[in-house]
Amino acid sequence: MLGTLWLGYTLYQFKKSPYLHPYMREILSDCALPIAVLTFSLIGSYGFKEIKMSKFRYNPRESLFKMAEMHSQSLGAICSAMGLGFLLSMLFFIEQNLVAALANAPENRLVKGTAYHWDLLLIAIINTGLSLFGMPWIHAAYPHSPLHVRALAQVEQRVESGHVYDTIMNVKETRLTSLGASILVGLSLLLLPVPLQWIPKPVLYGLFLYIALTSIDANQLFERLVLLLKDQLQTAAPNH
Hints:
The chain has helices at 2-12, 22-30, 32-47, 75-103, 116-132, 144-151, 176-187, 201-214, 220-227, and strands at 153-160, 163-171. The chain is mainly alpha-helical.
């Protein structure tokens, strides 16, 4: 777990190092997570194969597209589900709009206009179908959506008042990356049970820690908290 986190975050920060060509540093930084997962999956599968670890629970005889049997539920259960579903829809509404606002922040320099109402309509339609088959819901989530924007951005480092800032120059606004990621997620079902069961669960825990750690990169709230621990006389004036 910690090895996956260490290797992934080290490669993620490699773009700030003086080694190799800038293009190579950028590639290593962008591919930090898959490199870390593949490396420690091989180490865990072959170096520690004598240690028994839990794997994905997978039943090949169970249908993935089995519609929920709502008719078998009592009236009280259906009413309770409707109440919980209303609260869940409020959560989706709030998180979707907050994350969309963060992704469309002025500092990201996005050119194409927003479509908050259209996004909510599509999410409602898609999640209705997913609910009928008991599948996980989808919506814009933090930190994935802002990190997706940053991954498509061209970033330059600028020095102001002795402090180095990462400034987004432009963003390649395209839907192909999201479409490609969704297609790959669907195709990952073909990798069950092998080779996905070869990925140890500690590697997945390290993956989640990596996502949490990289989400605070350039986070103003985190930077403000860090300022409380710094010597104000030795710290350059921040931009916030």
